[in-house]
Amino acid sequence: MTPTEIRARVLHRDRLVVIIDKPAGLPVHAGPRGGPNLELYLDALRFGYKEQPSLAHRLDRDTSGCLVLGRNRRALARLGRMFQGGRVEKVYWAVTDGVPEAPEGRVDAPLAKRTPGRGWKMVVDPAGQAAVTDWRVLGQAGGRAWIECRPRTGRTHQIRVHMAHMGCPLVGDPVYAEGVGDAFADEMRTKLGPMLLHARAITLPLYPDQPPVEAVAPVPGHMRRALEEVGMDGAAEDAFARSQRAAALAAAETAPADEEPAEKLKSRRGRGFEAPRGPGSGRGGFGGR
């Protein structure tokens, strides 16, 4: 990936945050064996600031979509309070093996970390940390479902474990689809193919006197066919993706370097971002509740 390519994945940028569309397969941190990771590309996202942006939260290596970066210490502190306080609205799209019996529902199942032999995994455990995921079925066909997930807590692997707990594991999940530990993930990726989980949208009530910052990530190529098979309108999604790419490329090529903000956060005011709603906003798009 080149600096131009990572900048083309910017969904939103203002004085406090940069939101990017993370590709699936790219870890956010370097692993014990090294290799490509997001940290190698952060310098390309400075846009005139002295420091590189830093992660405000995380996505799994195999998850694509909206990822928020804070552009300075105070921005990261504010974002940290928002995530911890449950004030960030996150929307994920998943394709599952198996269809839930109900059209929508909530999984309220605490999670804990376990190390069964090699590696580790998260499991449902009444003594674990509280974990809640709201979900609804957006489409289904052939024993698979297109599910919108809205996690109300931010536990490791939460959506993956909760969907498996429902009897509907994510297609391609290298750990929970087969019930193996994390140490076996690489060999399971080869067997199963890409995991079908996408961080579709995120909303940040970042500025008290402005509308929330919103970003929507187009469906990645590795999920397109599977989503179309369970009901997604591919033509509408294509039109949305083209508009997003055009806007991102234009911004990356023409935007001037940003002015470093003043030290006092209270004096900052950002511009709200009204993201395109995308296809199916009342049903499967970002606007549905």
From TrEMBL:
Domain of life: Bacteria
GO molecular function: catalytic activity, acting on RNA; pseudouridine synthase activity; RNA binding
Biased segments, Low complexity type: 243-255
Pfam families xrefs: PseudoU_synth_2 (PF00849)
Domain Pseudouridine synthase RsuA/RluA-like span(s) in chain numbering: 17-165
CDD domains membership: PseudoU_synth_RluA_like
Keyword Cell membrane among record annotations: no
Gly residues bias (residue ranges): 279-289
KW Isomerase (keyword) present: yes
Gene Ontology biological process terms from the UniProt entry: enzyme-directed rRNA pseudouridine synthesis
Alphabetic keyword roster: Isomerase
Region (Disordered): 243-289
PANTHER family noted in UniProt: MITOCHONDRIAL RNA PSEUDOURIDINE SYNTHASE, RIBOSOMAL LARGE SUBUNIT PSEUDOURIDINE SYNTHASE D
Record family assignment: Belongs to the pseudouridine synthase RluA family.
Official protein name in the record: Ribosomal large subunit pseudouridine synthase D
Species whose genome carries this gene: Tistrella mobilis (strain KA081020-065)
